[in-house]
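Why do we care about 3D structure at all? Because function follows from shape, and shape follows, mostly, from sequence. That is the central idea of this module. The next example makes it concrete: a single protein chain, its amino acid sequence, and then its structure expressed as tokens.
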Amino acid sequence: MSTLRVCVASAVARAVTTSAISIPTRRGDIGAAFRRLARSVPVEVLRVETATGAMALLTGVSGLLPPDVPARWDGATRRYVRGLWDRWWKKQPEFAGLVMPKDAWSLAGLRPQNHPVRRMAAAAALFRGAHALGETLAAVDGADPARWTAKTMALFTGATGDSYWRRRLGLSCAPGRSDIALLGEDRAAAILCNVVVPFLVATDRVQRGAGELLGFLPPAHDDALARCTAFALFGRDYNPKFHRTALRQQGLLQIFNDFCLGDRSACKSCGLPAVVAEMARA
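And the structure:
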């Protein structure tokens, strides 16, 4: 593997960690906090921990491990948080200079399923253990693209950590009546499209041509930016089925980032038509 490819593989491997634990919103402050956490507690550190040990490290370094347990929390939650503290205090001297201030996280308005602590539980489930996630992904048989996609999605949606999270959305939430996935299908689909496939291509781990996989990548159920970009391009009467494939959603998101994000002219000064005209002449 070339030096450049090694560097790309390393960078994308870190992105797997950040993407898996970051919440499915486009809030830059949360993303920055997760990137900082991923640098402070790298995958190699999590790999040698149990699920509880990994969770203790992530919540401890992030500054989000509750210092006190409110009386209103149930017994299972109090025992779980005490267990995290039992592990964190032993590791605290090693990571003392890396602990983040709580105000590094903008938590106002977050739904429980998007809370950073829940995303840390997903990271603890995915990255602990002896086998690197990249190797596990590469081992999935890629002969059948549809089957590869289904199995790879299952690696993420089937991630299980501490039994505490099996039916809970958050530390302050009562347990539900049925199991709740740490990573839902939308988040898993985003990781697959934006991280996993680039990672496998960059490290020459795609068993067949990458182009054969693209048609089988799962779309997000409802990407608001893709929907708004399609509305701007095609008007109110466009068929929503147009962007119900992962590739078209990615294309619309690219258009948004290249032409819409910084535009303040209500499309009057949009540069996209000139680009399309130039492509047509080429």
